[in-house]
Each structure stands twice: as C-alpha cells, then as structure tokens.
Amino acid sequence: MSTAPLLSVQDLKVHFDVTRKGLFGGPKAVVKAVDGVTFDLRPGETLGLVGESGCGKSTLGRAVLRLLPATAGRVVWLGEDLHSLDHGEMQQKRRDMQIIFQDPLASLNPRMTVGQIIAEPLTVFNPNLSGAQVKERIRQMMAKVGLLPNQINRYPHEFSGGQAQRIGIARAMINSPKMIVCDEPVSALDVSIQAQIVNLLMDLQHEMGMSLIFISHNLSVVRHISHRVMVLYLGKVMEIADRDSIYANPLHPYTQALNSAVPIPDPDLEKQKDRIVLKGDLPSPLNPPSGCPFRTRCPRATEICAQIMPDLLPASSSHYVACHHAGPRD
Amino acid sequence: MTAILDVRNLSTSFSTPEGAVRAVNDVSFAIEAGETLGIVGESGSGKSQIFMSVMGLLAKNGRAQGSVQFKGKEILNLQVDELNKIRGVKMSMIFQDPMTSLNPYLSVKRQMTEVLETHRGMSQDAALTAAVDLLDIVQIPEARRRVHMFPHEFSGGMRQRVMIAMALLCQPELLIADEPTTALDVTVQAQILDLLGKLKRETGMAIALITHDLGVIAGLADRVMVMYAGEVAERANAGPLFKSPQHPYTQGLLRSMPRLDETRANRLQTIGGQPPNLQHLPDGCRFRDRCSYAFDRCAAEKPLLRTIAETRAKACHLEAL
Amino acid sequence: MAVADIAVGTVPEVKGRSLWADARHRFLRNKAAVASLIIFCLIVAACFLAPHLGLRAPDDINWELESWGPPNLELGYLLGTDANNRDLFVRTLYGGQVSLLVGFTATLVSLVIGVIWGATAGFIGGRVDGFMMRIVDILYSIPFIFFVIMLTVVFGRFITLIYVAIGAVSWLDMARIVRGQTISIRRREFIEAAEASGVSKWRIITRHIIPNCLGPVVVYVTLTVPNVILTESFISFLGMGVQEPDSSWGTLVSEAAVVMEIAPWAIIGTGGILAVTLLCLNFIGDGMRDALDPKDR
Fold it and tell me: How many angstroms separate the CA atoms of A273 and A262, rounded?
C-alpha cells in the first residue's frame, strides 16, 4: 500500500481582513483564523480535527477544499498546490474531494428533490450519462446510505435530520471521491441518530477507501472514528498524534483539559473525576496572545510561553506537540 | 415534606394545521427540595415542553392540562399576575441560548437591578451591590466593572453565567435549566457545570436539569427521568439508572455513545429507526418500532409507568433487562 | 424490511411535496385571496373576451341618446354614454384590455431584466455588484414624468411608448429586491455545497439562487402589476398615453372626472372597476406573501 500522502498541507494561513471601514479607513484588524497549520493525510485514513470555537477547524476544512482562499502556505493535493491552480483546473479536482456539512437541512437546496440533489455532482462531471443511467446510480447510492430509493422524488423538508444527513452523504459520495471533509456532521443530530451516521461513515470508508477529515468538538466521537487526531487552538496546532496515543497519553495541557472536560455518563466516575477547569475565556481572535495562544488559560504557562510560540516537535515517531512544557498530566 | 414541584398527569397539546400534536402525554413526577432531577430525552421527547407548561411559557397554540403544584399551590394555567409572583422569583428558568434571553439593548446592571427593585423592593444602591455580589458568585471576573456592560460584550460562557446570576436574583427554590450548556464549548461547559454544582451545594436549591447529554446528567443529577415521545420511559436514581438501565431506550442511549473511559469498540451499537413523529405514533408502546426486545404484547397494549423498586419506575412490558 | 432487501426499482416512487405545493395549499385556504383571484379572473375574462360577447362595438355612436347620458338598462347601456355617445361600459371593457396588457407585459419585462440583473450583481459581488447597482441608482434618480415627457417629445404618442417607459423604471425595484435576496442566499450552505460539487457559477445562479429568491419576487410581481396599471392610468390621465379612438382605464377616468358633477355614474363605474381590479391584485399579493412566508414552516 502506498503511503505517499494524498494531501499535504504546509504552513497554511487563512486570514480575514475585518478592518472597520471608517471615512479614512479604520485601524487594521485581521482575524487569523488559521495561522500556520501543517499536516499530511494518507489514503484511507481519518484525521480528526478537534478544537473549540474560534480554533479555525471549519475554516481549515474549507481552505483545504479551496472554498476559501489561502492567505499563505500550500495545500498540496497529489503533488499539486490547489491554491495555485486556475479556476478550470480546480473545478476538475473537485470530483475527488467533497464536503459534508453540520446542518443537514441547510446544506440541501429546499427547491430540489433528493434525486436532483444527489444527481448534480454526478452530471457535472459525467455529462454524457443518460437520464436512466443517472437515475440508476442515484437509487443505488440511496440504498447504500440507508435511504429508501423510492423516496427519490421527495423534498428535503420531508425528511428527518438524520435522513437529510444521509442525503448529504450520498451527494458527497456519488463520484467516489478520494477525500471528504466532514464538518461537524453529527453535531446537529440526536444522540441515537449520531451513532447510526458514524457507523455509516465508517462502513462507507471501509468499502470505498476514501480519506476523511473529521471536524468535531465531540471528543468521544472523534476518538471512535479517527486514526489520527489534531488539536487546534486559535488557528494553531497544539498537538497531533495517533488516536490511541493522544487519548491515552495527551502531552499538551490543552488536550489534557479537553479530555478531562468531557462528561462521562457514569455518576461515580464523574463525581470522582479530577477535572481540569481552565481559567478565563477564549481570547478574542482579533487580539491573540503573543507567543503561545493558549498561555492565558494554561496551568503551566511561564515567561517563555509569552515570548516564543513553541514549534511542533516530535515526542515520538507519531506524536507531535507544540508546547514548552509538554508532558503527562501532573 | 411537600415537594417543591409536584406534576400530575400533565398533558400538553399544540394545535397545528395538520391536527393536534400531543407533545407531553400524561406525565407525572415530583422534585423534592434540594434535589437535582435530570430530564433526558431527544427531539420529540417533550422534555422542554413540560417545563414551558410549568412556567406558563407555552406558545399561543399550546394548551396544558393536568395539575402542577408549586409547594402545594396549584399553578397550572394560573392568571399571569399570580403566576408572576412565583416565576422569576421562587422558580426561575435558564435557557440554551443566552443571547436571545438577554435584552441586547439594556445593560446587565439595568436588567438585574430592575428585577431586584421590583421583586425584592430594594433601593437602587442596594440592588447594584446585590447584583455585583451575584456576578461574583457566578465567577464573572471584575464584576464591579462588567456589570455596566451590555450582553453582546460578553463571551458565550460569560453570558450564560450572567443568565444564571439573573435567575438567582430572587433566591429561587427551584432552578429550571433547559439545555444550559449545549451551545457551549466543552471547556466552558465544564466551568458552568462546576458552577452549578457549587450553587447546588451552597444554596440547597432544587434543580431541574433538562438535556440530551447523559454525561452532563451523570455529574449533577440525583435522580433521572428519561423521556421518549412525550412520555416517561424510565425514572430512577442516577447511580442505578446508569449502572443497570431497565428500559430498552435508556439502554440503547447509553450503549450508542462512545465513551472516553472505555476501550474503543469497532462499531457503535445503535438504536435503529428514526426519532418519533408525534403525528404518526405506533399503537401500543411508542418505542416498539425501534426496540430490539419488542414482542407481541408491545403492539397490543401500551405499557404504563409502573414502579419496579422503591425509587424506580419504568414503562415497559419486559420484566428485567 | 431491511433496505438491502428492497430490490432497487421495484417499489413505486413516492411523490414529493414541494414547497410550492405547500404554499399553494396555504394560499387556497385564504378566502380573501381566493375570492380576489376569482373576481380578478372574471374581470380579465370580461375584458379580453368582450369582442365575442355580442356587445356593441366600442366606437359605435348612438345619435339618439344624449352624451354622458345615464345608465339605460333597456337598451343595455350599463354605464350610460360617454362624450361621443358611445357605450361607456363597453369602452371600459376594451380599455381594460389596454391597461391589463400594459400591466402584464411591463411587469414581465421588469421581472426578467430585474431578476437577471439583481441575481448576477448579488452573486458576483465586489466591484461588479457596485457598478451594476450604481447604474440602478442613477436610473432611479431620473424623474419618471420627465422621462415620459421626453419620450413623448422625441417619439410621439404611442402605446408602445408607455410599455417602454414603465418597463424601464419597474425593473429597478425588482433588481434591488433580487440582489438583496441573492446576497442572503449566497451565504447558505447548499450554495457552498454546490460550489464544492464543481457546479458552474451560472448554474448556481439559475438552479440554486433564483428558485430560492422567487418567494418575495412572486409577491412583488403581484404588487407591481397594480402599480403599473396605475402608472399607465396616470400617464394617460395627463394626456400622454393612449390616444383616441382607443381607450384605457386612465383615459376613461380622466374624461369622466371632468363631468363628475353631471354624470357621477361615469366616474363611479370606470373608477370603480379600476379600483376593484387593483384591490383584488393587492389581496392576491398579500395572500401570496402569507402563503410563502417561511415562518409558517
């Protein structure tokens, strides 16, 4: 099996200019949503992207697909930098990279039937297919994602949230892409339905072999579905490691705080838990702290943390952490 | 000891163009003084509508029937001016989205002191001091300065704390928290849950904690009530419920959640089917379409909530799971 | 029954219930709107089928009656006669053809231009949007009556003139509305999904944006038609539109107004039909707005 990366993101930065437009121009204000992120994605692997509000995970997902422009850095897909391609070339690449959204109903055009929605990416890239062939492929796809094919003429609002998400998945999969960015795909669903969708995604990945970038704030689900996990905070990578490694032995204080914050459905364990409660609130992305962005809430912060942003350094061959005081929880 | 809140046979219906929808169907429960009752359910369970009925906050097309007693006094469908003596004063509610619950045009100080002056008859100065003290209790840093700010100047977590502070202004005996941490980041959620735990210990007030997150319930609740399709599926003390759930729905919920403290399974165990459509419910047991234990009796006869142990009740024909 | 057991293609397809169908249901439950729709259709039918109803011709002069005579039911003059002893009621029906035709065609023109202009400006955004909307602003600032008078001076008095003038002005509002709608829709996730699927910009505009704008657009169209009819009436009232022997509701009202004191039935009749038509259109427009209101979802 080839282990050459499918996707190689190199020092990616996505900055938004939010300068207030006064009569003579306001003070320059920039939101550094993604500020120097580097990682690889291998074929068939799921990379979990975790972090809280403002960490840039959704922006990162979209920048990887070039749905947002990159301010700096490279997104190398099968050897080519996506952000240097012209419009036509990029459109061709879209066949192999897709996205699933958080709000299933909002991501479906309310005026199109299920069949039309799933058919669209197919007909864009295969204009020569006959109507009957298209319909056949759609019905097969619907069955594969757990929808009754005879619902093909229904409209999105006639489905429940979980079913609507299956439609979104069918649309993303219809061209058998090599990579799918899943932006919080189960967060808006009932707990009992979340499990169904997670199982579905894993089954489809097993069968079709695509890579997933799974963005979520739900650490339990991320642990279940991912092979590797990357933790973001205010646009920077805090830690990235194999799944087992990062959950069993998190080395970054932020990852440790995240892990301990997740409530466990067991009253005894919960009451005994020595939860790390971070002080303070997330800093404003307009004015991130100097040096390490996490230092304002970090229990281990010292002077050096304010002066120098720590590099992402290997703690082992598959475990990288960006912290001056990385180490197991005290 | 009279329960703080005693709900009997509460049913709430909404009239829609497609017919009447019963969001809450014949629900009975009680909350004792100082206890925290967790109410768990997903969409269509009716968990929020129970308390909207209790607080008299139903939408125009909603009607509630049954009996709701607050410390022995009947409050369901009470006149608004009578109800206002209790709600916001003895019984407060906090919601999922603090941004829409706080008036964006008024400063926090104004919103808080108004309540204190009206309900507790305080003078302006006394009210301001009390407001700042409360903000301190909910751990808003620099409370003295921040009390003059506006809601949009606070972050999500802090707004939620302001809302908790406002709910506590009149020292309520019952706090109803409707998905208080669902919209918050997990580290902020940890802070709020910590705060609620602290308030619970220090003030001894009763809390009705409504959520879909069983983890949140595990940390705070003394007793738990699991709702499905507008009815109570199971009721128990927190420990026994989590250790040995007796209703297939509760068991299904617990099993379908991946847990950080357990070894990773290869596949999640799911509850099949779709969330209940309140306008098209199956005969007999409402859960039977999705239940892996369903048998003949489940379709023929609807299971009533029955007591199976001193503090446990369930609505299921099975003897034991 | 497990999904895998269902052979693909053997179970009959379920018909979907589109949002338009929902809106249609809601509209049909609105009694005022439905009644208005019926009345409006009757008026339109009466006006356009007038030549086939066995009525007198509109330019038929009856020398035996007086001018501006009262309604004469035995002879069938429902609104009496006009200044030239012609049947005022028939002239009102024929005049309705002109007014309604202007209403529909000018609105159609404004719809097509306005929707394409607004959707394109809203979707492309940036400088192109700024440029396109500045043109709209400039055209907005031209005083309408000046414009019509100029056209009259240059081209003389023709009906087509009215169509052009009104069409040239009505599309501006439509463009603004559609642009606003487009901007709010552009941010929605299904647009992002279409972009990610490789759908071309033009197809996004036509298949995704425009169908979702149509709610407010449909409402606006039903409210533009009465505006246009009123505008045409105004132009004709001032003497710059339709010319003899043709009539439009505007010219008829204009003539009847002069003799209001001696022949009040004339203005009541002609003005009344105009007013009822406009009222019906407004009720229909309101009904559509209520039917399409997403808050009902």
Answer: 11
CATH of the domain at A265: 3.40.50.300
**Domains held by chain A: number:** 1
Distance between CA C85 and CA C67 in Å, rounded? 5
Please give the distance of CA A91 from its chain centroid, rounded to a whole number. 21
Of A267, A273, A275, Cβ closest to residue B238: A267
If phi > 0 it is left, if psi is from -120 to 50 it is alpha, else beta; for residue B71 that is left
In Å, what is the CA distance from A165 to each residue of A45, B147, B183? 22, 43, 20
Listed in sequence order, the DSSP H helices in A104-252 are: 114-125, 131-144, 161-173, 191-208, 219-225, 243-248
- Which chain A residue is nearest to residue B260, measuring alpha carbons? A220
Give me the amino acid identity at A54: G
Say which amino acid occupies B16.
T
Closest-CA distance of chain B to residue A130, Å: 34
Beta strands in B157-295 (DSSP E): 174-178, 206-211, 223-228, 231-237
Q: What is the ipTM of this complex?
A: 0.86
Out of A92, A111, A153, closest to residue C14 by CB: A153
Chain C interface, Cβ < 8 Å to A: 3-4, 6, 8-9, 11-20, 188-190, 192-200, 207-208, 211-212, 297
A52 in contact with chain B, both atoms CB, cutoff 8 A: yes
For residue A107, the enclosing domain spans: 7-293+311-321
> Residue B87's beta-bridge partner residues?
B91
- Indicate the pLDDT class of residue B227, thresholds 50, 70 and 90: very high
Q: With the C-alpha atoms ordered C152, C158, C164, C167, is the resulting torsion angle positive or negative?
A: positive
Beta-strand pair B312-314/B223-228? unpaired
The predicted-structure confidence for B41-94, as pLDDT tens digits, reads as follows: 988 899 999 999 999 999 888 999 999 999 989 999 888 888 888 888 889 999
Q: Are B32 and B206 in contact (CB under 8 A)?
A: yes
Contact between A39 and A207 (Cβ < 8 Å)? no
Identify which of B248, B254, B250 has the alpha carbon closest to the alpha carbon of residue B294. Answer: B248
CB contact under 8 A, A275 and B190: yes
Residue in C closest to A92 by C-alpha: C198
Give the one of C11, C193, C199 whose C-beta lies nearest to A107's C-beta.
Answer: C193
Whole-model pTM: value is 0.85
Break chain C down into helix, strand, coil percent, rounded to 5. Answer: 70, 0, 25
Residue at A280 is within a domain: yes
User: Is A301 a member of any domain?
Assistant: no
Closest CA to A120 of A65, A186, A167, A185: A167
Q: Is residue A230 part of a domain?
A: yes
What does the block give as tokens for A26? 């306001």
Residues contacting C70, CB < 8 A, separation 6+: C80, C263, C265
Say whether pLDDT at C52 is over 90: no
User: Is B42:B211 a contact under the CB 8 Å cutoff?
Assistant: no
Report the C-alpha gap between A27 and B225 in whole angstroms. Answer: 54
Under 8 Å between Cβ of A179 and A134: no
Distance, in Å, from the CA atom of B41 to the CA atom of B55, rounded to the nearest integer, reads: 19
Q: Tell me whether residues A219 and B239 touch, CB distance under 8 A.
A: no
Single-letter amino acid, residue A3: T
